[in-house]
Write a structure and sequence with these properties.
Elements lengths: L10 E5 L2 E5 L5 H10 L14 E3 L5 H4 L2 H7 L3 E4 L15 E3 L5 E4 L2 E8 L6 E8 L2 E6 L7 H6 L5 E5 L4 H6 L4 H8 L7 H11 L6 E5 L8 H14 L7 E4 L12
Parallel strand pairs: 2-3, 3-4, 4-5, 9-10, 10-11, 11-12
Antiparallel strand pairs: 1-2, 6-7, 7-8, 8-9
Helix pairs in contact: 7-8
The chain binds zinc ion (2 copies).
One zinc ion binds next to loops.
Length: about 260
């Protein structure tokens, strides 16, 4: 995880020789700094730095530098048809459409996506599979949805949004309108709603759960962790799954899928 939260989201996946980004929501300079910390080399002759960039949706905290990074690294940017006109995306000319619900295969890496309920149309979650190993990234989801969970089954590493604690959101400083937006059906997952998604998404494959897109205002790391661990306990997976928190300010550890 290069970054996670409303200030910018990005995940780096290495599969064989390929380097793939899911979202690039920080400013370009900060994205480059984090890519360097993650030992991603700059593009060289005949070799991109980042081979593929996939974008979940057009909100700036996910798309901000996606076009810029793809162009600079000579990678191919994959996004939905309607995102092609997005100002952040258009900075890259090397674009290809990934239909909502579609699948892309990049040299043995199979990337599928499924539509999420969220107030940027469309918004998707990604499932990335390479040599039988599966990583799933689900953020910016307004409400739990079992159909979505079924499309994302079998994750070994699961990155899941634990955005807010409902009580903290309700008693917090956000305006009434913003509270309604965040808690609404097209906003973000509360800790409780994330527990429901985890119930549907977790399988015997799962060994690492990354809690993502935590609100700095309306959540606490210990509350999110408590909810995740409680659900894993109920599923009998508590000892089999390590729980990590994705950070806004620094890159996370390398996670082997
Ligand atoms: Zn977001
Ligand atoms: Zn969003």
């Amino acid at each position: 995880m290069l970054s996670s939260g409303s200030g910018g989201n990005s995940a780096l996946i290495r599969a064989g020789e390929q380097r793939v980004l899911v979202d690039a929501g920080l400013a370009g300079v900060e994205m480059e700094a984090r890519l360097e910390l993650a030992n991603v080399p700059p593009p060289a002759v005949g070799r991109p730095g980042i081979d593929h960039v996939f974008v979940t949706h057009g909100h700036l905290d996910h798309a901000r530098s996606a076009g810029l990074i793809a162009r600079k690294h000579r990678g191919l940017l994959h996004c939905s048809e309607s995102l092609m006109r997005n100002a952040s995306i258009r900075r890259c000319r090397n674009l290809t459409t990934l239909p909502v619900g579609g699948v892309e295969s990049c040299a043995g890496l199979r990337v599928s996506n499924v539509a999420l309920p969220h107030d940027a149309q469309p918004t998707v979650a990604f499932r990335l599979e390479h040599e039988g190993r599966v990583a799933v990234i689900v953020t910016d989801m307004g409400r739990p949805d079992e159909r979505v969970a079924r499309a994302l089954a079998g994750a070994h590493v699961l990155v899941l949004e634990f955005n807010h604690d409902l009580a903290l959101l309700e008693s917090g400083p956000y305006s009434a309108a913003l509270k309604r937006r965040v808690a609404g059906n097209a906003g973000h997952l509360s800790n409780e709603q994330a527990m429901q998604m985890l119930r549907w998404l977790a399988s015997a494959n799962l060994h690492t759960l990354v809690l993502a897109h935590l609100s700095e205002t309306n959540n606490r790391p210990e509350l999110a962790r408590e909810c995740a661990e409680k659900q894993l306990d109920a599923l009998g997976l508590r000892s089999a799954v390590r729980v990590l928190l994705a950070s806004q300010s620094e890159i996370g550890p390398n996670l082997e899928v």
